Amino acid sequence: MAKHSVALAKKRWPLMLLAFISISTVMILFMRPNNSDSCNTTKTFEAQQSQIHPSSVGNAPAGPSPLDFMKSKLVLMVSHELSLSGGPLLLMELAFLLRGVGSDVVWITNQYPAEHDQVIYSLESKMLDRGVQVLPAKGEKAVDTALKADLVILNTAVAGKWLDAVLKEKVTLVLPKVLWWIHEMRGHYFKEAYVKHLPFVAGAMIDSHTTAEYWKNRTKESLGIKMPETYVVHLGNSKELMEVAEDSVAKRVLREHVRESLGVRNDDLLFAIINSVSRGKGQDLFLYAFHKSLQLIQEKKLKLPSLHAIVVGSDMNAHTKVEMELRKFVTEKKIQDRVHFVNKTLAVAPYLASIDVLVQNSQGRGECFGRITIEAMAFRLPVLVCPSLDI
Ligand SMILES: *[C@@H]1O[C@H](CO)[C@@H](O)[C@H](O)[C@H]1NC(C)=O
Ligand SMILES: *[C@@H]1O[C@H](CO)[C@@H](O)[C@H](O)[C@H]1NC(C)=O
Ligand SMILES: *[C@@H]1O[C@H](CO)[C@@H](O)[C@H](O)[C@H]1NC(C)=O
Questions:
Q1: Residues 343 and 215 grouped into a single domain
Q2: What is the whole-number distance in angstroms between the Cα of residue 24 and the centre of ligand 1?
Q3: Residues framing ligand 3 (Cβ under 6 A)
Q4: pLDDT (tens digit per residue) in 265-322
Q5: How does pLDDT run across 65-111, given as a tens digit for each residue?
Q6: Residue 161 contacts by C-beta under 8 Å, 6 or more apart in sequence?
Q7: SS3 helix, strand, coil % of the chain, rounded to 5?
Q8: Atom number in ligand 1 closest to CA 343
Q9: What is the residue range of 178's domain?
Q10: Per the structure, how many domains does the chain have?
Q11: Is 38 in the pocket of ligand 1 (CB under 6 A)?
């Protein structure tokens, strides 16, 4: 325990500095892997393993990694896209864990935009820095790697499109070593074009029992196919996040800094919704409810601290209708001084450290378990969850 505190103390400053910088810019975050001692992949895996007993995360003993058997193995990861969203980021985390135990890891992004994309560029640089090879989705090299690989991980149901398109007649040689990681539950994923090879892969890995049951039922009912051997593997929190969550000094400094930058006072009440801004995530309802609360407080002359709302996950570049609607709503209702938009970011810890309540308001059947829920719980925050979620 003592040894651990010393290690933490040593790490605290670089970590906090890092977090500071990350508040103002997304891109700086991508430099995090260079700071390799605050990002030990072995420990991240231990953190993930100990998700059931969060209290044990802090004192995970140094020892052999349970992933050691993957040393020198060739792993091909096929992601349907590369973006700052849950699926690709989880796969990237796994890539780094495998690099940490000496696996050779090759990454393929199936859906690649035509024009230059700064986020993709940064995420790829981050992978290259950590020794993950990045290959084009199509071509001889992709096929060769798939044939040679000891394990092929397909990430999300949609990644199934890659199999026939690229492997063609060789697909049957690869299927027996495919682990298919499925996070989603939306009805439109149950398409033959995506999942027809599912019965023939080595295994499916699914984030929750609810989602696994749903897949089992839907594949059978709507496609007449059988799920392969299915493993339910719950998501865990990363070691980096847990370190901040358990460091009261770091949390306090981050809280002060974020609040100051937003113009939120220490005793104001700050509600947050932290998801990519999109229709399914319920940011609109969150803001309507927030506005309604402000009205109620005024009408009833309630004596309450000032309420603020923060929406982390904004992306003005995407020009989505939802984003425009949210901004318009805030302007029309003249609550700009109470509602704060923050760009999409990999580093949620500073925001978790600075808020009072997290609202997880994803709407609709297709929305699956969002890791932000357990990340907020690690920060001992009250989390308001809407019942349609797979939780
Ligand atoms: C947020 O994103 C917008 C558009 O992508 C950009 O113009 C702005 O500078 C970003 N804000 C911060 C604080 O990075
Ligand atoms: C990560 O931590 C483990 C256990 O503390 C240690 O054995 C290993 O050498 C570290 N790896 C790196 C890359 O620092
Ligand atoms: C299974 O799928 C059918 C048809 O899609 C649906 O009517 C039924 O409610 C589902 N059952 C469960 C337990 O999800």
A1: no
A2: 9
A3: 217-218, 221-222
A4: 999 999 999 988 888 888 999 999 999 999 999 999 999 999 999 999 998 887 789 9
A5: 899 999 999 999 999 999 888 889 899 999 999 999 999 999 999 99
A6: 80, 110, 193, 194
A7: 50, 15, 35
A8: 1
A9: 68-232
A10: 2
A11: no
